[in-house]
Each structure stands twice: as structure tokens, then as C-alpha cells.
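Check out a protein:
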Amino acid sequence: MGDVEYVLTLVLHVEKTERPAQTDALETAARAVLAILADERSTGEGEWAEAMYAWQDARIRKVVRRARGAEWRRAAALPGITVASGASEGPPPAEVRIFPPVPLDEVPKDLAKLQVTGTDLEDEDLPPVAPGLPVLWVNPGLEMSTGKTMAQVGHAAHLAWWRLPDTARKAWADDGFQLAVRTASADQWKQLLRTRLPVVQDAGFTEVEPGSHTVIADHPALIR
């Protein structure tokens, strides 16, 4: 099984004339990753557990695609978890469906045919981050598409989950995995890199140079 490359797919619901805000999509993608990690089907003797273990023993590859209309309905019918944001004003709420990992050559056709590129969204003014809220800080020096950034914040949330003690994991799950995604200032980024917080180092297969630091996860229960 160690020679088999697994991939986890996230699908963002984007209708032609209704597009969620960028940060809302990023936060929802990160929460979706946490939701599948915490799901009882992903652990122990759960139906997704074997695939989740195999995937996490190797490169935690994540692919973000987009769907609308009938494409979204077909994707939603496949085994997985749908996570929606709580946005109530402005653009429509973000909606992401996450699917358990499968071998790269076994991605269901209704997912494999969905587009990967072109998922570029915009933001409105962002509110201040509430005190004590986990934050996934994006590198201000990189240009990444929405889809690429969704995968990267998903990685950061994943790394944070691995580092957290069980009590902190439970508390986060009980809170619905509330978090914020923000782009750090240049000075903030330099300071964050000096901490011991989890940092995503990208393999560089798409959009950024190999070894690029893309996102840093800052959770109150993590040692800085």
C-alpha cells in the first residue's frame, strides 16, 4: 500500500452567477479538512479509516475542484461531508464537500472531470479576528489561486490537528472548528517563521517554487 499515492478531493460549490467570498471559501475548506479528520468513519474501524491512514502515512495530497448545478448534485451524492459557512450577508455562503482519500487512479469520474483551475474569488472587507480564535496565516509574498490556497490552508489545519492534544481537539470540534484565514503582513510573516508553529512547505508541483512556505497555523493550544 505504501507505493500507492492517495489523494483527498475537496469540491467548492460555485454557481455561474453566485460566487462565495474568497476568505469564506478558504475558511470553509480548512474546516472541511478538520471535519473529515475528526469524523468517526476516519478512525479506528471506521469505513474510511484504512484509506485515511494510508493517505496520512504518505504525502497528504489535496486537490480542490469546483462544481455547479448538476455537477454539484452528482458530487454531493458521493460519500463525503459537506461543510457550509455561516455567512449571512454579502456573497452567498461558501459550501465545500470533502471526500475520503482514494488512490490517484481511482478518483470517481464525477469528481475527476471537474475543473481544477479557474477557481478565483474576491473578498469584501474582513472583520478583525476575534481574540483566541485559531488563525491560518497565508504568506503575503506568494501569488496563489483560490483553489491552491484552499489546499494550503487545508494542509495547515491538518498539521495543527496533528500537533494538538486530545483535549484541544475535542474543544475545537465542539466549537465547530471555528477559525480565521488571513494574509499576514510582511513583518508578521517574518515573526511567525521564528516560532514553532506548524508551517506548510509546498512540494512545488503547481504555482509556487518547491520548498515555499505557504501557510502557518496559529492555534491557542499550540506552543509558539
